[in-house]
Amino acid sequence: MSHSKLFDHAMNAAKEAVSLDRQGDYEEAFKKYMHAAETLLEFLKYNKNEKLEHIVEARMEEYIDRARYLKKKISGKTAKAYPSVNKGGSGGSGRDKIAETEDEDDVDEETKRLREMISDTIITEKPNVSWDDVAGLSRVKQALREAIVLPIIQPKIFRGARKPWTGILLFGPPGCGKTLMAKAAANECTATFYSADSASLVSKWLGESEKLIKTLFELARKTSPSLIFIDEVDSLTTTRGGSGSEGGGERRLKTQLMQEMQGMKSSNKKRILVLGATNRPWDLDPAFLRRFEKKIYIPLPDIKSREAILKIHTKGIEIDEDVDFKELARLTIGYSGSDLSLVCREAIMIPVRELDLNGVIDDGEVDIRPVRRDDFIGALEIQKPVSTPRDLKQFKEWSDEFGV
After folding, report:
1. How far apart are CA 350 and CA 318, in angstroms?
2. In sequence order, what DSSP letters do the residues of 61-77 get, joined into one string?
3. Among 28, 71, 318, 340, which lies 20 to 30 A Cα-Cα from 169?
4. What global pTM score does this model have?
5. Are 21 and 168 contained in the same domain?
6. Are residues 327 and 200 in the same domain?
7. 376: confidence class by pLDDT, cuts 50, 70, 90
8. Same domain as 373, residue 265
């Protein structure tokens, strides 16, 4: 099977999983979600597109998270993720709200089909992430609270000239928690969370991409308060006319997205906010930058944040007394949160690898030694930071000119 067919096969399996999930056939839905994730993993072996790789990895994570939740549901355990009711009993999940909207509205078949595509390919559940799950970034958290959380939980504060933001751009080096911050913000304000990307919104059929974007914003208004999170937003909103390879379909898609963001009508009763994330803010079209009223820089973690991240990613693992997380934090200047998680994964696998290479691991009891300082030092030699000093300088210069 070619790699393109693998991707199509995975998407079909995911759609079947969502359909089974809605019908209450959780066991079959669990199998389909896992099959979709496994097929995407196979697809990544052949894929050479770095941007698509990030999108596919995020989609795999969503399918696996949902499969875990269903597994707990099948076994009768209480699951925290993907709750069916928001805090305070204020209504159902995003998918429930979409279903209710379809029942209430007298819409044509094409609109119903587009809504089905939106609910099939875009995550509309409430995330199970809180501010505590994000190490550091206190200034960024406060900015997001003022822009997203407070207008929803205390709408009376925002009257007259004090208006909440309707568009926010998170930018910074890859792996610094932009997506995690978006999920935490949606969770804190109990908003319907629409997580979209270029793979979800771009269609090969003429005119369908524009209709998908229009339908997405219509649904967000009907299920408000809503937060539309567009990851890798630069893949949709690069400078128009800046490349000879840009087709008419791409220009129409950008125009439609710009019109929807410009025409958003938020009120105390219907709050909708667009949150974009990008590793390349300088590639965005100036007109889109204007529609993101607030631009927030998500920098690399500082020393205290690095120490906290290292502890988070070694939780539940026996650590030797010679490991000093403060020392490791000092040794990891320039590492992102994602880089640090990979360092931890490599370090905690070293004791397992030693046993396996020595032929000790079998189906019996295995005694694994604690993770030592040398394991972390060895992991640091293997795992280098993704962002270079040149990249960080470019982010700093762009932030000084446009961001906060």
Report:
1. 13
2. HHHHHHHHHHHHHHHT-
3. 340
4. 0.65
5. no
6. no
7. very high
8. no
β pairing state of 167-171 and 272-278: parallel
Residues 244 and 335 in one domain: no
CB atoms within 10 A of CB 221: 16
Domain that holds residue 367: 303-386
Lowest mean pLDDT among 14-18, 95-99, 324-328: 95-99
pLDDT of residue 253: 75
CATH number of the CATH domain containing 332: 1.10.8.60
Helix spans in 3-122 (H): 3-23, 26-44, 50-75, 94-104, 109-121
Give the count of domains, the chain.
3
Q: Decide: 163 and 217 in contact? Cβ < 8 Å.
A: no
Residue 125 inside a domain? The answer is: yes
Query: Using CA atoms, how far apart are residues 125 and 117, in angstroms rounded to an integer?
Result: 15
Give the separation between CA 43 and CA 35, rounded to whole angstroms: 12
Alpha carbon distance 102, 115 (integer Å): 8
Q: What's the mean pLDDT in 195-220?
A: 70
- Those residues whose C-beta lies under 8 Å from the C-beta of residue 171, and which sit 6 or more positions away, are 178, 277, 278, 279, 281, 295, 296, 297, 298, 395, 398, 399, 403
> Angle of helix 94-104 relative to helix 109-121, nearest 10 degrees?
180
DSSP for 155-221?
GGGS-TT----SEEEEE-STTSSHHHHHHHHHHHTT-EEEEE-HHHH--SSTTHHHHHHHHHHHHHH
Per-residue confidence at 181, pLDDT binned at 50, 70, 90? confident
In a domain, 400, yes or no: no
Residues 10 and 98 in one domain: no
Residue 198 in any domain: the answer is: yes
CA 205 to centroid of chain Cα atoms: 26
**What average pLDDT does this structure show over 193-210?**
66
Please check whether residue 9 lies inside any domain of the structure.
yes
Instruction: Encode pLDDT of 276-327 as tens digits.
Output: 888 889 988 888 888 888 888 888 999 999 999 999 999 999 999 999 999 9
